[in-house]
Write a structure and sequence with these properties.
heterodimer; A: 763 residues; alpha+beta; Aldehyde Oxidoreductase, domain 4; 7-stranded mixed β-sheet; globular; B: 157 residues; Ubiquitin-like (UB roll); DNA polymerase, domain 1; 5-stranded mixed β-sheet; 5 helices; 5 strands; 34% helix; 15% strand
Chain lengths: 763, 157
């Protein structure tokens, strides 16, 4: 029976779910090794200061406590964490040491590691370590960072680490002659990925074999293995990172953190397996923060609403150190501020500020969420000033199908040239208006109904994906006819096992249930890249296609030997190899498994794109915003599994709504985190945003990969901040309320309303 | 302290410290790791288990408090076949990373066991005590709505 091309595009229920809904998953906290010890980390409670002394003697005297590791136990030079992306030499000053040595630079920075017979005993011991820190003035705000009263890195002489510059055209000339220029300041608050499963590791050192095994890898196991092996002075083959079930990532989990070194190093030092799991408070102080940004930007247009360009200064608070991917957000804010619109003149500088707060890294749609807030707000303000309908204004400026591929602005100091690959932005825009019911809902704009003013907004976005350079797979046709697919891709909960099995089933013309996907462990393939930049489907999936062709070649060759014919005469059909009326089943075709390795290389990003529309209602008395409807229409080129893709879109949008209305990592002027629990840091819950809709299209397949797929899964949240702020402004247009800052919390909206009403009363 | 209780239909006993939480006891003493810890301060609901049929947070309960009680975790709800509630979660893609899922399943199971006719508003209200970072909740609510019929058919199961 031929099963050709029948799985891609089907809403297959996930294979992962069979274990996960029954509590049979294995997350890192569920991994235990015989004779294991437990690590707990002493963290700085001071944001900025000089370590005067650490005395562990009292802790070491407690029963069950084995070791207390401090910086001086890690050799003459404490290892620092290198950058995974944009590894610029001028950023080396800001690399994080795995344990604070002379100085502490944020609350939560690791200072010592306690190893004990149980986690509880190790936690008890923390209180018996005498840590003396001489406080220095904290740098917690942009004003403090620029004021130079205190320097996070004295040797650098400034709290500005580096400045990214996005450029195109002749900005000064263009702005001088522009009909219309508006200048505004915007702010986006610090918030974070906040995945549900706290981070953790179990590490085991086998002295006899000279081999280190670490459970708890995620996202980028191969890169982290290279970093860890180099830090420990071990050959690559001596280090194995193992990915078990992973409880969410969203860009933050799986990057190399201090604990990625500390727990394996501790296991090697004590000669017993060591287990560590963070708690939520630790997570909030230590896992990458994101999105904190301020900017002062000018937007220029012609009188008839043709966008000319953007110029201005952006300040990104990156926290106390540069994390592995810490440049991505600040770079993207500058490079992608033009979004899906034609803008010929760009001059945007994005400065990375060091402060005494938790370091920042990527969080789903890094930089794009922030920059879309700025751009879409600017477009609505311009529409209001120029008295042009905001739908029409956007239509006039969206990049047209005929302009593809359309380059995005250049950026320095680390070249990241890219171009929008394909798309019919106008078609998706109009489809969104239709799905949303814009015309009908427009009748409610500005109306007060049951104490709430109603407003609408629209916004378009682009989502980059499929970062190179490559992904690897190893396909093994087992002797029983089953197919094992070993991959360099990683799963952070997005359903990789299901999606890749669909791709492999179609590529091999095999039944889906004969395929097993194995991923994320460094023993599976020689080199892997992992799960980031919406790349798994495109990169891993395309690698499977390449591998399947090689495996079919091998099957034909193997069968040809048995048939006594030429390989090209063998026909593969229905899990059989056939020649001249005879058939050999895949099962038993060979006495040993048939195995091939394959790689897919890619230099070009994919660019999925979409438009979202929103309907909100605002209570001017409390500042509360009800999200009545958000509709997203996105073109991803090709859908592998509509069920999981829809889930990504909806989940992403709700995360974005959390960032727009609820989530905020608040610090005081001393650099103390004030929102260190789920009681203070509010995530969306089931009652907050019940009306979120998503439609996915396959209008324009990506020309740069054999699947035609474009990275998707981050997109849903990208336009949400700007969309919500514009919808609130629309609802309160009679007061000319203009939110320039996120989150749109009730106090903030209420204050804007109060201010506007006071101004009106005065007038 | 010595404690004895019924865990997923079996009588179990253990020697625990007074400060040991029920969650740690279930996970560490009895290896039932389907009960997950995500906040350990009673907000996220990932650790929800059933004690005498009521949904409770096992991170906020001490193990010694369930002496003589009947405790059911997510592992105790199904055998080889998925329950209708679990199957509905799968069908509606109500989980991605799956870490919060055991808490949602136990919470929804307790709700539907008591109120098999719960409407969407009631379901959302009860589930608002559990946090999920992946799904956006919409498919979870759809799954629970669909599973209601199986609780009506079988009475209080």
């Amino acid at each position: 029976m031929k099963v050709f091309n029948s799985y891609i595009g089907r809403p297959m229920e996930r294979v992962e779910d069979l274990r996960l809904v029954r509590g049979r998953g294995t997350y890192v906290a569920d991994v235990n090794r015989p004779n294991q010890l437990y690590a707990v980390i002493l963290r700085s409670s001071t944001a900025h200061g000089i370590i005067k002394s650490i005395d562990s003697s009292e802790a070491l005297a407690l029963p069950g406590v084995h070791r207390v590791l401090t910086a001086k136990d890690l050799g003459s030079k404490v290892p620092v964490i290198p950058l995974r992306l944009q590894p610029l030499p001028q950023l080396e000053t800001f690399h994080q040491p795995v344990l604070a040595d002379k100085k502490v630079r944020y609350v939560g920075e690791p200072v010592a590691v306690v190893i004990a017979e149980s986690a509880a005993l190790a936690e008890d011991a923390l209180e018996h370590i005498a840590l003396e820190i001489e406080p220095l003035p904290a740098v917690a705000t942009r004003e403090q960072a620029e004021g130079k009263r205190s320097l996070v890195f004295e040797e650098h002489g400034s709290n500005v680490a580096i400045t990214w510059k996005a450029f195109r055209g002749n900005v000064d000339e263009a702005f001088k002659t522009a009909d219309y220029v508006r200048r505004e300041k915007f702010r986006v608050q610090r918030h974070a990925a906040m995945f549900m499963e706290p981070r953790g590791f179990v590490a085991e050192w086998d002295e006899a074999a000279g081999k280190l095994t670490v459970w708890g890898a995620a996202k980028t196991p191969w890169h982290n293995r290279r970093t860890l092996a180099a830090q420990l002075g071990l050959p690559l083959e001596a280090v194995d990172l193992v990915e078990v079930d992973v409880g969410g990532g969203f860009g933050s989990r799986g990057e190399f953190y201090p604990e990625d070194y500390l727990i394996p190093a501790a296991a090697r030092i004590v000669g017993r397996p060591v287990k560590w799991n963070e708690d939520r408070r630790e997570h909030m102080m230590t896992a990458n923060h994101a999105r904190e940004m301020e900017c002062d930007v000018e937007f220029a247009c012609t009188r008839d609403g043709r966008f000319i360009g953007l110029r201005g200064q952006i300040w990104c608070d990156i926290g106390a150190y540069i994390r592995t991917n810490g440049s991505v957000g600040p770079r993207n804010i500058a490079q992608y501020m033009c979004g899906p619109y034609c803008m010929e003149h760009i001059d945007l500088k994005s400065s990375m500020l060091t402060t005494n707060k938790t370091p920042c890294g990527t969080y789903r749609g890094p930089g794009r969420y922030e920059t879309d807030f700025v751009r879409e707000r600017m477009i609505d303000l311009a529409a209001q000033d120029l008295k042009i309908d905001r739908l029409e204004l956007r239509r006039r400026n969206l990049v047209a199908d005929s302009q593809m591929p359309y380059p995005l602005p250049s950026i320095t100091p680390y070249d990241s040239s890219t171009e929008l690959d394909s798309g019919d932005y106008h078609a998706v825009f109009d489809r969104c208006l239709k799905e949303f019911g814009w015309e009908e809902r427009s009748k409610l704009r500005g109306r007060l109904i049951d104490g709430y003013y109603h407003g609408l907004a629209i916004g378009s976005f682009i989502e980059g994906g499929a970062a190179g350079p490559k992904e690897e797979v190893r396909l093994v046709l087992e002797t029983d006819g089953a197919l094992s697919v070993y991959m360099g891709s990683s799963s952070v909960g997005q359903g990789l096992e299901t999606i890749m099995a669909q791709i492999a089933a179609d590529a091999m013309e095999m039944s889906y249930d004969k395929i097993t996907i194995r991923h994320g462990s460094t023993s599976y393939v020689k080199d892997g890249y992992g799960a980031y930049h919406s790349r798994s489907t495109v990169m891993g999936g395309s690698a499977i296609l390449v591998g399947a062709e090689k495996l079919k070649e091998l099957i034909r060759k193997t069968a040809a030997e048995r048939f006594g014919c030429k390989p090209e005469e063998v026909v593969i059909d229905g899990e059989q190899a056939g020649f001249g009326g005879n058939h050999l089943s895949f099962a038993g075709l060979s006495e040993t498994p048939l195995e091939v390795e394959a790689e897919f290389f890619n230099k070009k990003y994919t660019w999925s794109y979409g438009t979202q529309a929103a309907h909100v209602a605002v209570d001017p008395g409390t500042g509360h915003v009800k999200v009545i409807d958000v509709t997203s229409v996105e073109d991803v080129g090709r859908m592998i599994n509509p069920l999981t893709l829809h889930g990504q879109a909806i989940g992403s949008m709700v995360q974005g709504l959390g960032g727009a209305f609820l989530e905020h990592l608040v610090y005081d002027d001393e650099g103390q985190l004030l929102t260190g629990s789920f009681a203070d840091y509010l995530l969306p819950s089931a009652t907050d945003f019940p009306s979120v809709r998503s439609v996915t299209l396959e209008l324009k397949p990506c020309p740069n990969n054999p699947l035609g797929a474009k990275g998707a899964g981050e997109g849903g949240l990208i336009p949400i901040g700007g969309l919500m702020a514009n919808a609130v402004a629309d609802a309160l247009s009679h007061l000319n309320v203009q939110p320039m800052e996120l989150p749109l919390s009730p106090p903030r909206i209420w204050q804007l309303v109060e201010k506007a009403e006071a101004a009106r009363a005065k007038a | 302290m010595q404690i004895e209780f019924n865990l997923n239909g079996q009588t179990v006993s253990a020697e625990v410290e007074p400060r040991t939480t029920l969650a740690d006891c279930i996970r560490n003493n009895f290896g039932q790791t389907g009960t997950h810890l995500a906040c350990e301060h009673g907000v996220c609901g990932a650790c929800t288990v059933l004690v005498n049929g009521e949904a409770v947070r096992s991170c906020l309960l001490l193990a010694v408090q369930v002496q003589g009680d009947k405790v059911v975790t997510v592992e105790g709800l199904s055998g080889d076949e998925l329950t209708p509630l679990q199957a509905a979660f799968r069908k509606h893609h109500a989980l991605q990373c799956g870490f919060c899922t055991p808490g949602f399943i136990t919470t929804a199971h307790a709700l539907l066991s008591h109120e098999p006719d719960a409407n969407e508003e009631r379901i959302r209200d009860v589930l608002s005590g559990n946090l999920c970072r992946c799904s956006g909740y919409i498919p979870i609510v759809e799954a629970v709505l669909e599973a209601r019929s199986s609780y009506r058919d079988s009475g209080s199961k």
